[in-house]
Design goal:
This is Lipoprotein. The chain is mainly α and 106 residues long. The chain has helices spanning 2-39, 45-86, 91-98. Helices cover 83% and strands 0% of the residues.
């Protein structure tokens, strides 16, 4: 079993960047599809292109805002956990107190 894992490790190391690229490409395609869906009824092709460009910018801004909020929430939870640990609460108890176990997908 361990030998199999050691043999697979180099393959997994090569596959991870490829998978990350696929996720990124899928995200971009998804953003374009969402923007096109919102702008598809714009009558003029030039106006449609401007609408799509604007929608893409709004989608990307929303995604950046969501990522920043998630990061801020994580940092606040880590700080609360550190305060609890400093006051004598065990690491596991402090983590359970500050971490509900529910996480938004990244």
């Amino acid at each position: 079993m361990k030998k199999t894992i050691h043999r697979m490790a180099p393959l997994m190391a090569l596959a991870l960047p490829l998978m990350a690229g696929c996720v990124s490409a899928n995200s971009q395609e998804s953003n374009k599809a969402e923007a096109y869906a919102k702008c598809s009824y714009t009558p003029n092709p030039d106006a449609r292109e401007k609408c799509i460009k604007t929608e893409l910018a709004l989608i990307e801004a929303r995604q950046r805002s969501d990522a920043q909020r998630i990061q801020t929430d994580r940092e606040a939870a880590e700080e609360r956990q550190a305060i609890l640990e400093a006051s004598g609460v065990s690491r596991e108890d402090a983590k359970q107190t500050t971490d509900s176990g529910l996480h938004l997908p990244d």
